[in-house]
Amino acid sequence: MLKLGVNIDHVATLREARYRGRAHGEPCPIEAALVSEAAGAHGITAHLREDRRHIQDKDIFALREKISTRLNLEMANAPEIIAIALKVKPHIVCIVPERRQEVTTEGGLDVLAAEKSLTATRKKMNAAGIEVSLFIAPDTEQIAASARVGAQFIELHTGKFAEVFSDAKKRKAELKRLVDGANHAHALGLRVNAGHGLNCNNLSALFAVPHLEELNIGHSLVSRAVFIGMKTAVKEMLALMKKYRS
Ligand code: PXP
Hints:
The chain is an alpha/beta fold. It is 47% helix and 17% strand.
């Protein structure tokens, strides 16, 4: 069964827009996580960015304590965040590239360029009982490097697929890259997740990609929640995801 990890970052984005620096504020990302779980989500994903633009340290500790599914902590491969991850002990970390100027995570991790330090981080996490995923573009070299790092998972970056979705020719080409990438990763023993830019419209086309275990979806769910509520938005996505056959 294809699992859904609900990314609750943008609930915190809304809170920070009004209550930055305060101990209180709404909406509460922890409440969003609990509602998502009650609606059937298989896990909760949150990104503790170095600039703390949405999720705060206290959110991550509270999520770890309060949720009953799995916590997937998205993080940069940076010493400060690594130290926090080792304290929080999420079930899994997904290492992502981070640039301060970006609106959201743009592009995949350059695993080739940082193979040594990613291997060291992977070892630290695994020694603490935390699984490791690497957020990468469906690129042959990056997939091979992810296997050498010893990561348990890769998360295929679906941002490009989502961006070119309305152009049939470009969509086909990007889907092929994702299909080939998933097959390559699976053959190397990597488990495969995917995420970024997914929504109710583009989801079913992604089902051509084999070996997917979990999708991490945030922006679209929080956007839908404005009109139909988080519980219904999560249930709607889960209903669509039931059609996936690897
Ligand atoms: N996966 C990763 C690694 C991400 O960085 C993000 C964005 O925070 C997502 C999934 C979710 O993307 P979106 O918010 O577009 O659904």
